[in-house]
Please model this.
Amino acid sequence: QLQLVESGGGLVQPGGSLNLSCAVSAFILDNYMIGWFRQAPGKEREGLSCLMESTRSKYYAESVKGRFTISRDNAKRTVYLQMSSLKPEDTGVYYCAAKSARTTSLHNMCLRGWVDYWGQGTQVTISS
Model:
């Protein structure tokens, strides 16, 4: 079964931190690149950070570089997005996604949104 299930969203004050989790089915974890995307109100979906396990490569969008960290725990079959110094413009629905590493690059996955599977999304709201 191919599944991505996000959790951890919520309401946070500006400057705060939040950790998102994505539970990933074993097949996806072993064979796919995993990434986090965000869709802010009225905007297109944006790739924030993507991870390729085989090369230990990571991609971060400029808008989150230095503030967000992507990681994975293979034993728990979970990919995380640790977010800090959150801003109101970080508000949106956050999606976990997967793309076969055999069909494109990490860069294309995150920059172009080339994805094979999406999670259902989790809402993050940054507001005082």
About this structure: The first helix runs from residue 26 to 31. The chain has two helices and eleven strands. The longest strand covers residues 92-100. The mean pLDDT is 95.
